[in-house]
Design brief:
By secondary structure, this protein is mostly beta strands. Helix content is 0%, strand content 50%. It is built from no helices and 11 strands.
């Protein structure tokens, strides 16, 4: 069973930066064969896609984070990252990484999910 273990996150003031990591334990396919993405869910709101790789390795960002967040991955380490800069209070949410063989993009239909990590941005 594939497992995703997240680390990073925490509390930061507006304008600050944080980096999230998502280490994958993969058994069925190679890590590079999975499409990966980051999602977030704020209290009382639906889960929304933040950034993802499509099947060709191109990056997709939600409009709300373009120019501030950067998704990247290290196939040698089976690890996905989300660098978050210029954070705003509205970025406060639980963040999740996700993986699937299907390129769902920013749609939350991925098969495998991390445990979630809290990001809190104060004004």
């Amino acid at each position: 069973e594939e497992q995703l273990v997240q680390s990073g996150g925490g509390s930061v003031q507006s304008g600050g930066s944080l980096r999230l990591s998502c280490a994958a334990s993969i058994s069925r396919y190679t890590y590079s064969q999975y499409c990966m993405g980051w999602f977030r869910q704020a209290p009382g709101k639906e889960r929304e896609g933040v950034a993802a790789f499509d099947e060709d390795g191109r990056v997709i960002y939600a409009d709300s984070v373009k120019g501030r967040f950067t998704i990247s991955k290290d196939n040698a380490k089976n690890t996905l990252y989300l660098q978050m800069n210029s954070l705003k209070p509205e970025d406060t949410a639980m963040y999740y990484c996700a993986a699937d063989r299907v390129a769902w993009g920013l749609h939350d239909r991925y098969n495998y999910w991390g445990q979630g990590t809290q990001v809190t941005v104060s004004s």
